[in-house]
Description:
This protein has helices at 23-34, 86-96; strands spanning 14-19, 48-51, 59-64, 77-79, 99-103, 112-116, 122-126.
Amino acid sequence: MHPAHPTAHPSIHSITFDTTGDPYYVGLFWSRLLGRPLDEDDKPGDPAAVIADPAGGPRLLFIQVPEGKTVKNRVHFDLKPNGRTRAEEVERALGLGARLVADHTRPDGGGWVLLADPEGNEFCVERGESG
């Protein structure tokens, strides 16, 4: 066995979302929400869709699977609005097809809003710099 080398650690290549629907349309939701384009080769009906991170971070991969979601996500995104308030970001996400799951906003402005994408994958919208 070779000793561990500092550069030998893996990097996160993709964060994968399972979908029973068309991966292109779930990817399109996230593309619009995050302002990142879908891969130009992705088309409706494809078994997978990809959103790259222009900053070089992990890509988002959407793949079609036969089984639906049955329990709460064990991993989810916490989104921080940029240039919008939390309320504005939530309204924008709802307009793109998200569903409100629970509003955990506190009277002092803290907390979060729990949403789900069109496939039911939960994500949170935190308070942004604008509130």
